[in-house]
Amino acid sequence: GAVVSQHPSWVICKSGTSVKIECRSLDFQATTMFWYRQFPKQSLMLMATSNEGSKATYEQGVEKDKFLINHASLTLSTLTVTSAHPEDSSFYICTRDSLHVNTEAFFGQGTRLTVV
Amino acid sequence: AQSVTQLDSHVSVSEGTPVLLRCNYSSSYSPSLFWYVQHPNKGLQLLLKYTSAATLVKGINGFEAEFKKSETSFHLTKPSAHMSDAAEYFCVVSALDSSYKLIFGSGTRLLVRP
Fold this sequence. Notes:
The complex is a heterodimer. Chain A is mainly β. In chain A, strands 2, 4, 5, 6, 9, 10 and 11 form a seven-stranded mixed sheet that branches. Chain A has strands at residues 4-7, 10-13, 19-25, 32-38, 44-51, 57-58, 67-73, 76-81, 90-96, 106-107, 111-115. Chain A is globular and about 35 Å long. In chain A, a hairpin with a 5-residue loop joins β4 and β5. Chain B is mainly beta. In chain B, strands 2, 5, 6, 10, 11 and 12 form a six-stranded mixed sheet that branches. In chain B, β10 (87-94) and β11 form a beta hairpin. In chain B, 37% of the residues are buried. The chains are: A mainly beta, B mainly beta. Chain A binds chain B through residues 6, 32, 34, 36, 42-46, 49, 57, 93, 95, 97-98, 101-102, 104-105, 107-110, 112, and chain B through 32, 34, 41-44, 46, 49, 51-52, 90, 94, 96, 99-107.
């Protein structure tokens, strides 16, 4: 069964509004979770690393004030897209930290965001 | 720094014929390598992984990949394509620093003709 649950699986919102995406680790407490973004017909790019109890680490070019990440508990990380614009329309997907070195990453189902 | 290059953006095969999806990597240490598959509007599923054990790795659905250090390659193969194999395939290298970041290739879309 799934070990990472992501919600919602899709969302349509109006330009200027904010959208929150949840990522839950179902099988163990994850101190670190990762958020990726995939634009149409492109590969996945790491946006940020979510750290439980501390600030997220953002990759170069990702606006931290626009993509707010909260990892308040060991099983839940949230990504909030603030003041969304059509160019933010993308597929957002999270993973949790692996238990051991060299193990696979477990991905959430992903969230398709469409901003109209 | 680690990187991975998928040499073909699209590969088209006939059902029942072999599949070859090419991947080359760059890493300053012995990497962990993965192949993931993504079906339309779905999440990612792990096909197989290489983690410095056997160089020939067998995965799900009849896929396998061979790690060749001398060629810095990790090509994905399947003897006989099925229509359900049509999807996007990603070759991935693990950064293996303290945060286990994943670095994705650009992806190869596999088309299977009847």
